[in-house]
Design brief:
Length: 67
Amino acid sequence: MADDSNNAGIGTPEDQVKDAPAPSKRRAAAPAAKEDAHVSQVLRTVYERAVNEDIPSEMLDLLNKLD
């Protein structure tokens, strides 16, 4: 028969996970904010390029036919 006195108070792995401190969100917030800012900047750049593109003449011809 095994001696369980060495394992007293350890608990199951599930208990250890439950009792573990929650991960700090402050450490991850700075890199996530940096990534969000980068994604926002890229999206703005793509949007500005799309808005500033010339409208193809074929599209303008079709629009003129709607009048």
